[in-house]
Here is the input.
Amino acid sequence: MIPKHCSIINNKRNCLNVPSYIVSVKVDNEDYMIGVVCSIHKDIMEKLLKVKYVSVDFEPLHYIATKCALESMNKV
Ligand SMILES: [Zn+2]
Here is the structure.
């Protein structure tokens, strides 16, 4: 399951923004999903990860669940 909030912790407080990207890194040719990030923190996350990992990937999240919920609501 995808976390409901951005994975960034700022001043010991979790960012409560809705995530916009799935963050994954490549280690030994294997992709590892390491968290999710909101659009505001994407650049920060990228900078932090680029120090440690060669390949960092941000996959945009499409709000499938939300869209489905809205569509089913419209049908009622
Ligand atoms: Zn955030």
User: Anything to note?
Assistant: The pocket of zinc ion is lined by residues 6, 8, 15, 17, 37-38, 40-41 (CB under 6 Å).
